[in-house]
Design goal:
Elements (H helix, E strand, L loop, with lengths): L2 H22 L28 E8 L4 E10 L2 E4 L5 E2 L3 H12 L5 E4 L5 H4 L17 E6 L5 E10 L6 E5 L6 E5 L24 E12 L4 E13 L2 E4 L6 E3 L1 H12 L5 E4 L2 H7 L10 H10 L1 E3 L5 E3 L3 E6 L3 E11 L4 H4 L14 E10 L25 H34 L2 E6 H7 L3 H4 E3 L4
Antiparallel strand pairs: 1-2, 1-6, 2-3, 3-4, 5-9, 6-7, 7-8, 8-9, 10-11, 10-17, 11-12, 13-21, 14-20, 15-16, 17-18, 18-19, 19-20
Length: about 450
């Protein structure tokens, strides 16, 4: 064989061996699971303002039941259906939540095995076929105004070693991803409602009256132990019956004013419609049915023989510089935790459940007498005169007219504030914490102490 043929033969053998090597070498397989890694979970959801409903389902492993929370926008109002359709201050918070959801990506594929769902904590809390109470995640659903689902996913456990990352799964799919979750999905009732319950700041509070009494629930007899009247005098407070050797305790007073300024509620209960209608009339004289009476009594409120509404833990009246007088009536202990407190879902027996909260019944009124009517003009002839032709009487009447008109406008504005507040308070029994109750429900011995000079 010539040198040339031998060389060609060797080249041919090398080519064949190379082809065989390529054909028989192990291939790098890219699973389909990795193909969408890095993509958005919900690419069609682009505008956070589209979201008008947020529904979050948690799971209570102790009771073995799903715990729903829902905020929605219907008929021009934000409400919380899971809490008796209480008004919600939800637009901004929901938009921020939706914006966070839009940005969630499939950062890292983790599993395609259903057996891993428990360990990852992504079992659907609504899955009735799952046998384990453990490993249930938090299901989050966002919908638009037509109830079209914009996003629906289950948030699981934190990913160990990856701060800010959680396991995430889409309901109905086996696949689990690790995703960076940078969104505050709150299911706390207090986070979704108007945080300033009384809408009054401490600098506008000028008068407080604590009413200490007890009531015989069987007979309706009221046993009064006395009132404490506190009046602001400049930057100091004085008690109405304060002696020369006494003074109002500054620390206790500041705690009381702070509790009023920062009063928050942790739960609500709807009042009967008949009672709500009566309360919106801005009257302290209530006419209620037998059913309304039972509702009141269950929350710790009763009528005396002369028709006065009282509570079994006394009351506090708060007067402001605008002439608004709030009455806070403290009722029964509220037992339980979670939804049992915030919405009244009875998940525990009262004997075993904690009693760390209390009912609060709020009304308001406008004290028109706090702003006496100024002298009106004797006539309004000046209205038809030019300034150059006005007499001294005309000028005097014009001044009286302007002062009286301003007074009347202010009175109407203050009255409207009270009407608006009553409309807000009328439909609900509120629930406050024991800490708030302790700071608000004070006696004379709490508020008045011997002065250092005494």
């Amino acid at each position: 064989m010539s040198e040339t043929r031998r060389t060609v033969t060797f080249i041919g053998i090398a080519v064949v061996l190379a082809l065989l090597s390529v054909l028989t070498a192990p291939k790098r397989i890219t699973p389909n699971a990795f193909l969408d890694q890095g993509e958005l979970f919900f690419p069609d959801f682009e505008d956070p303002n589209e979201a008008t409903t947020l529904e979050v389902i948690d799971f209570n492993s102790e009771t073995g039941s799903a715990v729903p929370f829902k905020v929605t926008f219907r008929r021009g109002t934000w409400t919380i259906p899971s809490h008796h359709n209480h008004p919600a201050d939800g637009k901004d918070r929901l938009a921020k939540t939706a914006a966070g959801v839009i940005g969630i990506r499939k950062d890292d594929f983790r599993s395609d095995n259903i057996a891993d769902h428990k360990e990852c904590g992504v079992i659907d809390p609504l899955d009735e076929t799952a046998t384990s109470f453990e490993g249930r995640g938090q299901r989050v659903t966002l919908k638009d105004k037509h109830d079209v689902v914009l996003a629906d996913f289950i948030i699981g456990n934190e990913v160990e070693g990856s701060e800010g990352y959680r396991f995430v799964r889409v309901p109905g799919q086996k696949r689990v991803y690790a995703a960076k979750i940078d969104v505050d999905i709150s299911t706390e009732f207090a986070d979704w409602i108007e945080s300033d319950l009384l809408q009054v700041t401490r600098d506008k509070i000028e008068r407080l009256v604590t009413k200490d009494y007890s009531i015989d629930e069987r007979t309706g007899r009221l046993m009064e132990r006395g009132d404490v009247v506190l009046q602001k005098d400049g930057d100091r407070w004085r008690a109405g019956d304060q002696r020369e050797n006494e003074e109002v305790d500054v620390t206790t007073m500041n705690q009381l004013l702070g509790a009023l300024d920062d009063l928050k509620i942790v739960g609500i209960r709807p009042k009967p419609k008949g009672l709500t209608t009566t309360l919106t009339r801005s009257s302290d004289s209530l006419q209620v049915s037998t059913a309304d009476m039972l509702s009141l009594q269950n929350a710790g409120y009763f009528f005396t023989r002369d028709g006065r509404l009282v509570s079994n833990e006394g009351e506090l009246q708060v007067g402001t510089t605008e002439g608004i007088v709030y009455t806070l009536r403290f009722g029964e202990i509220v037992y339980g935790s979670g939804l049992a407190v915030s919405a009244g879902a009875r998940t525990d027996e009262e004997g075993d459940a904690p009693g760390e909260n209390r009912y609060l019944f709020i009304t308001s009124m406008f004290d028109a007498a706090a702003f006496p009517e100024p002298q009106p003009p004797t006539n309004t002839d000046f209205l038809a005169k030019a300034d150059s032709t006005m007499t001294n009487d005309d000028l005097s009447n014009r001044k009286l007219y302007n002062e009286h008109r301003k007074w009347k406008e202010n009175q109407n504005g203050r009255s409207n504030i009270s009407t608006r507040l009553n409309a807000r308070f009328a439909g609900w029994y509120y629930v406050i914490t024991a800490d708030s109750f302790d700071k608000l429900r004070l006696t004379r011995s709490d508020l008045v102490k011997p002065s250092p000079e005494g």
